[in-house]
Design brief:
By secondary structure, this protein is α/β, with parallel strands linked by helices. It contains 6 helices and 4 strands, in the order βαβααβααβα. The chain has a 4-stranded parallel sheet, with helices on both faces. The longest helix has 25 residues. It is globular and about 40 Å long. The two termini are 27 Å apart. 26% of the residues are buried.
Length: 169
């Protein structure tokens, strides 16, 4: 079976886009912080961000994660709208200014999480690559789900949300 790489959004900027991916509790935020500090120490211009964002759509997603998750189509729509705002307001302007953008999650998480809910992975993948720029670097942090959940409970002192179940992770 041949797998064709989806066509990605064309980039003409001079920036650097780096995404950290992995399950909840894998250590993405820690690695984003370490890389950010290392680049700032070298006097690089760095923008750090996360998905879902703190914008209107991101807040809807976060609220849904604490209560009942939205339906698959509604959740996918919310992630897409959140990313569109994120791209328009933060990511693309920074890349166009030649800055390094470091993301704690990006569209690969949308593919994984929506795919795990039964969404068509090929369709979601094509949609993500067509609507968002492909990162220059993607770092996948692999951690067993049990480790991620332990870090959420003990390290962060939080109760896992609707996205952070053993079966989902």
């Amino acid at each position: 079976m041949s797998r064709e790489r989806p066509h990605s959004m064309t980039r003409t900027d001079s920036g650097l886009l780096i995404a950290f991916e992995g399950i909840d509790g894998a250590g993405k935020t820690t690695q984003v912080e370490l890389l950010t500090q290392a680049l700032l120490a070298q006097h690089k211009s760095v923008i750090r961000s996360k998905e879902p964002t703190d914008g209107v759509w991101g807040q809807k997603i976060r609220t849904s994660s604490r209560t009942d998750r939205m339906t698959l189509p509604d959740e996918l729509h919310a992630f897409i709208e959140d990313r569109n705002e994120h791209l328009r307001d933060k990511i693309l302007p920074a890349l166009n200014q030649g800055q390094t953008v470091i993301l704690d999650r990006y569209f690969y998480s949308t593919i994984a999480y929506q795919g795990s809910r039964g969404g068509d992975v090929a369709t979601i993948t094509a949609q993500m690559f067509a609507s968002a720029p492909e990162p220059d670097i993607v770092s996948l942090i692999d951690a067993p789900p049990e480790v991620g959940l332990a870090r959420i409970r003990q390290g962060r002192g939080e109760v896992p949300n609707a996205f952070e179940t053993l079966a989902n992770l």
